[in-house]
Amino acid sequence: MEKKYYTAFEIAKITGGSVFGDGNVKICGLASLKEACPEDLSFLANKKYAGQILSSKSLLIITGKDFAGKIAEKTFIICDNPNLAFSKAIAVFAPPPVKYPPVTHPAAVVADSAKIGANVHIGACAVIDENVVVGDSSVIGAGCYIGQNSSVGKSCLIYPNVSIRERCVIGDRVIIHSGAVIGSDGFGFEAGPGGIVKIEQVGTVEIRDDVEIGANCAIDRARFGKTILKKGVKLDNMVHIAHNVVVGEYSMLIGQCGIAGSAEIGRGVIIAAQAGISGHLNIGDGAKVAGASGVIKDIYPGQVMVGTPAESPREFMERLAAPKKIRQLSERIVELEDKISRFESELSKIKNS
Amino acid sequence: MEKKYYTAFEIAKITGGSVFGDGNVKICGLASLKEACPEDLSFLANKKYAGQILSSKSLLIITGKDFAGKIAEKTFIICDNPNLAFSKAIAVFAPPPVKYPPVTHPAAVVADSAKIGANVHIGACAVIDENVVVGDSSVIGAGCYIGQNSSVGKSCLIYPNVSIRERCVIGDRVIIHSGAVIGSDGFGFEAGPGGIVKIEQVGTVEIRDDVEIGANCAIDRARFGKTILKKGVKLDNMVHIAHNVVVGEYSMLIGQCGIAGSAEIGRGVIIAAQAGISGHLNIGDGAKVAGASGVIKDIYPGQVMVGTPAESPREFMERLAAPKKIRQLSERIVELEDKISRFESELSKIKNS
Amino acid sequence: MEKKYYTAFEIAKITGGSVFGDGNVKICGLASLKEACPEDLSFLANKKYAGQILSSKSLLIITGKDFAGKIAEKTFIICDNPNLAFSKAIAVFAPPPVKYPPVTHPAAVVADSAKIGANVHIGACAVIDENVVVGDSSVIGAGCYIGQNSSVGKSCLIYPNVSIRERCVIGDRVIIHSGAVIGSDGFGFEAGPGGIVKIEQVGTVEIRDDVEIGANCAIDRARFGKTILKKGVKLDNMVHIAHNVVVGEYSMLIGQCGIAGSAEIGRGVIIAAQAGISGHLNIGDGAKVAGASGVIKDIYPGQVMVGTPAESPREFMERLAAPKKIRQLSERIVELEDKISRFESELSKIKNS
C-alpha cells in the first residue's frame, strides 16, 4: 500500500489547530513521542511527558496551548484538546472500521418469538432466545447469547461471546466487549437448617444508553428489583458489579475494580483500577477512589479517597510518612536520653558536692 | 398485567411470621426500604439499617424478633430469619423461572460417544465432546463447551458460554455461571536449558455436589492429581483458583479473590472480596479473611485475618492507629524537650549560683 | 485398567537421576508428599517442605542434590532439577493428551476468504471471519471467534471460547486459554463538549511466539500502534493488559494482576498475583513486583518492589515494623518521663535545700 503524506497545514486543518513552525513538513503515519520516526505525527497530551519531545524523532507534534516550547526543526500544531485533536488525526490513518453486514448469519440461532429490528447484524453461532427484542442497527457478535425476554436497544455493539441472561434490559448505543456477562445471579446465601441455602436472585439488570462494558466484566442481576448502570457509565475490563448495585451517570470504573452488593455509586464518580467498594455504601457524586483502595464507609460528593481502608489523601500521606516520622522521633528520643544521662551525672555531682 | 394485592395476614402466612400492627394493610410489590413505595413490602435483615425504617415509605416490613419498634401506620411481620422470609415473599412476586425444555437443541453439537441422561437440556451451539457424560435433568446452556471424558452430574445448571476442559468431574446440583472456565492449565513453568519450559498440567478438576461457581471464574486443573472444590463451596464472580488447590466444604470465596497453587482451604472458610492466598498455605476450618487481604502464612481454624500481609484484627487496628500514636508520641516528646530545656536553665542557674 | 508398576531404577532412568536407597522399590502412581500412599512416587522441589518427607507415606521420592537425607525404608532419586524430573515421571502416568483431529468441524463457520493451513483443527461452532489466516498445525477450539484480518501462527493451541478481535497478530506456538479476549478496545475517554467522548481505539494487538495467555485474560488493542506481548511472555488467569502496553520477552504476569495503559514491562520481569502497574511506567528488565503491590513509579532493572505504593523490601519491612517501633518508642518515652519526674523532685529538693 502506497504511503500517503500530509503536510502540517493539512493536519492542522483536520485537527482544528494552528501551526507553529514549518507548515510544509510532511508526515505519513503517527506514533507516540517515544516510538515516532521523523515521518510520524505525534502528540503531547500531558505536560508531565514534555521531556519526551526533545528526545522524540517526530518532527510534527500536536500540543496544547499551555505548551510554550520552541524547538529547532520541530513543528507544533497547537490545539485546545491535544488528545481529541490527535484522535482526529488517527482517524485519517486508521484502517476502515469493521463492517458488520446487516443480516442474520445463517449459523445464528434466533427464536421465532424474537423481534429483530432493521439493519441488525447477528453473527454466526449467536443464540437469541425466546421473546428477545433487538433494536435497529445493533450488532450482536458471533457466539453471543441473549436470554429469554431480554432486550437490546438501537445501535448497540455487542462483541462476540458476550452472555446476557434472561429479562435484562440494555439501552441504546451500548457497547459490550467480549466475554462480559450480564445478569448472572447475585451472590446470596443464608445459613439454613440443612446448611447453606441459596437466596434466589429474581431481579434483573438494566443497562442504560451509552454505557460501555469492558471485556470479561460481570454484572450480577438483583436479588429483586434491578442492578442499574445509568446513562454513560463506562466500565473497563474485568469489573465486577454485584447484585442491586446502582452506578450513576457517566461514572467510570477502571480495570478489575469491584463493587459489592447494594452499593450506590453517584454520578461522575471515578473508581480506579483494582479498588473495591464494600456493600451498601453510598459513594457521592464526583467522588474519586484511588487505585487498589478498599472503601469501607460512605464517601461524600467530590471527596477523594485512597488506601485500604480508604481515607483522605492527607491521612494517607501521613500514614505513608510513618516510618520517616518514627525515625525522627527515635532521633529526638536519643537526644533526650543523652541529655538526661548528662543531667544524671551533673545532678549526682551537685548532690555529692 | 393486573396488580395482585396481598394483605399483611397473607404475607405472614407465606413467610411464617406473625403480624404486629394492621393485618389488613395491602401490598402489591416489594422493594428495599430505601426504594419502596407505600404499596411495597420491604424488610430489615440487619439492625444496622434500622434507621431506614423511619424514612421508608413502605407500610409493611418484615423484621426479626430483635427489632422491637412500634411505628405509627407501619405494620411489621416478625420472623425468625427476615432474609429467608423475604425470599419467600419474593418468590410470590417473581416472574416464573426460565424453563429449559428437556431436549438437545438441533444446533447443539453432541459427540456420538457422549452419554446424555434423561430430561437434559442442551442449548444451541453448545459443544459436547467425545465420551462426555451428562446426568439426568441437567441444563447445559447455549455456547458451552464440555471437553473429552468430562462428566457433569444430575440437576446441574451450566449457564451459557461456560468452558469445561477434558477429564473434569462435576457433581450433582452444581451451578456454573456464564464465562467460567473449568480445567484450564495450571500456571507452571521452570527455567530450562533453552529458556522457560512449560510444566505439563496433566491433572484434573473435581467439583463436588452443590457447588456454585460465579461468572468468569477460572479453576485450573492440577499439575497432577486434582484441584478440588468440595461439597457446597460457593464462588462469587471472577474468583481464580490455581492448580492443586483444595477448597473445603461450604467455604465461600467472594468476588475477585484468588487462591494460589496447592493452597488448602478448610471447611466453612470465608475469603472476602479481592483477597489473595499465597501458594501452599493451610487455611484452617472456619477461618475468615477480610476483603483485599493478602495472606502469606498459614491460618489457624477459626482465626480472622486482615490486611496485607494479613495479621490479626488487633494487630491490624494497632497498625491503623500508627499515625495517631505517632502524633501522640510527638507531643509527649515536645513536652519532654520543653521540660529538659527548663532543667538545663535551672541546672545552669544552680551551677552558677 | 490394570496398574503398571515401575521400580526406582526404572524411574531413575526416565528422570535422569541416580538412586539412593533400594532401587527395587516399586510405585504405580504419583502424588504430592502429603497425599502420597506407599505406592506413589513423590518429590521435593523446595527444601522448605523437607519436613513433609518424614510424614509422607511415599517410599520413593525425587529430590535435588542439596537434599542430603537418609531415611530408613525410603528411597531417593537424586536429580539436578527435581521439578522437571518429576514432570518426566508425570508424563509416564499421564493420560494420553487430547487429540484434535486435523479437520474443520462441519459446525464451524469459516469465511471463504480465510486461509487455513495444513493439519489445522477448527472446533465446532468456532467462527473464523473474513481474511483470517491460521498457520499449519494450529488448533482453534470450539466456540472461538477470530475477527477480520487477524492471523494465528503455526502450532498454536487456542482453547474453546476465546475471542480474538479484528487485525490482531498471533505468533507461533502460542497457547491461549478459554475465555481470554484479545483485541478488546482500550479504555479511552475524554471530556468532550456534550459529555464523555469515546477515543477510538484503532490500533491492534501483537502476540509473539511462545506466549501463553491464561483463562479469562483481556488484552486490549492499542489506541493506535500496537499492544505487544513479546516472545515467551506467560500470563496466568485473569490478567488485564491495557492499551499500548508492551511486555518484554519471557516476563511472567501472575493471576489477576493488571497493567495500565502504555506501561512498558521489560524482559524477564515477574509481576506477582493481584499486583497493579500504573500507566506509562517503565518496569526494568528482571524486576520483580510482589503480590498485591501497587506500582506508581518506574522500577529499575533487577529491582524488587513490594507494597502499595510499592517500595523496596527494606522500606517495606521498616513500614511493617512501625507498630513494634512505636511500642518501643513509647516505652522509652515512659522511661524518660519517669526519670524527668524524679529530676523534678530532686531539683526542687536541691532548690529548697
Walk me through the structure.
Three copies of one chain form a homotrimer. Chain A is an alpha/beta fold and 353 residues long. Chain A folds into two domains: 6-93, MurE/MurF, N-terminal domain (Udp-n-acetylmuramoylalanyl-d-glutamate--2,6- Diaminopimelate Ligase, Chain: A, domain 1), CATH 3.40.1390; 109-305, Hexapeptide repeat proteins (UDP N-Acetylglucosamine Acyltransferase, domain 1), CATH 2.160.10.10. The first copy, chain A, is built from five helices and 38 strands. Chain A has a ten-stranded parallel sheet, with no helix packed on it. In chain A, strands 10-13-16-19-24-27-30-33-36-38 form a ten-stranded parallel sheet, with no helix packed on it. In chain A, a hairpin with a 2-residue loop joins strand 21 and strand 22 (195-198). The first copy, chain A, is flat. The model of chain A has no long low-confidence stretch (mean pLDDT 94). At the A-C interface, helix 3 and helix 5 of A face strand 21, strand 22, helix 4 and helix 5 of C.
Tell me the count of domains of chain A: 2
* Biggest chain pair interface: A-B, 68 and 66 residues
CATH classification class of the largest domain in chain A: Mainly Beta
Q: Poorly predicted ranges of chain A (pLDDT <50, ≥5 residues)?
A: none
Radius of gyration of chain A: 29 Å
In short:
With 353 residues, chain A is α/β, with parallel strands linked by helices. Helix content of chain A is 18%, strand content 27%.
